[in-house]
């Protein structure tokens, strides 16, 4: 089998104690040695998605901080209204609540449904949600506003 044919195993030249090499040995290609310090990891299907939501309320409640119970009730209402029984079955982990900002974690396969349900929900008193960002990597959700501050007047 020739060296350029598929399936040919590359061989290292044998050690010649005389120090001379034959023409056959000098034309052989050395097989590349694996680099033990380099490694690759591919995550094909992330388990969780991280969503940053902003709670919207009526002007009469401006300045009141959002509490965990209200955030959970309003998000559950949005999921139930948009997705029915399936929406109530989606596990939601509240990671952080700060003023009107809420960071949650949901299963990755439910991310788009949760964003659509939360963003499309409002109650009769004017409460609602705005999706500020979402990602499969939590670090990028917190610092990203996608230029939304241009439209908020801040």
Short description:
One of its GO terms (biological process) is nuclear-transcribed mRNA catabolic process, RNase MRP-dependent. The chain has six helices and four strands; from the N terminus they run αβααββαβαα.
Short key terms for the protein model shown above:
154 residues; 29% helix; 6 helices; alpha+beta; Alpha-Beta Plaits; four-stranded antiparallel β-sheet; 19% strand
Can you walk me through this structure?
With 154 residues, the protein is an alpha+beta fold. The chain has a domain at 48-152: Ribonuclease P, Pop5 subunit (Alpha-Beta Plaits, 2-Layer Sandwich), CATH 3.30.70.3250. The chain has helices at 23-27, 68-83, 85-89, 111-120, 138-142, 149-152; strands at residues 48-56, 93-98, 101-107, 128-135. The protein has a four-stranded antiparallel sheet with strand order 2-3-1-4. Strand 2 (93-98) and strand 3 form a beta hairpin. Helix 2 (68-83) crosses helix 4 (111-120). The radius of gyration is 29 Å and the shape is elongated. The termini are far apart.
């Amino acid at each position: 089998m020739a060296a350029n044919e598929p399936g040919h195993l590359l061989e290292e030249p044998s050690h010649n104690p005389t120090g001379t090499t034959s023409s056959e040995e000098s034309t052989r290609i050395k097989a590349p040695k694996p680099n033990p310090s380099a490694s690759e990891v591919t995550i094909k299907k992330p388990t969780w998605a991280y969503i940053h939501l902003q709670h919207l309320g009526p002007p009469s409640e401006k300045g009141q901080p959002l509490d965990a119970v209200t955030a959970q009730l309003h998000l559950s209402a949005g999921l139930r209204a948009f997705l029915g029984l399936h929406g109530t079955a989606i596990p939601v982990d509240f990671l952080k609540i700060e003023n009107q900002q809420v960071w949650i974690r949901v299963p990755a396969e439910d991310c788009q449904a949760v964003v659509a349900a939360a963003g499309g929900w409002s109650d009769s008193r004017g409460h609602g949600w705005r999706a500020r960002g979402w990602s499969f990597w939590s670090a990028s959700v917190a610092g990203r506003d996608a230029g939304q501050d241009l439209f908020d007047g801040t």
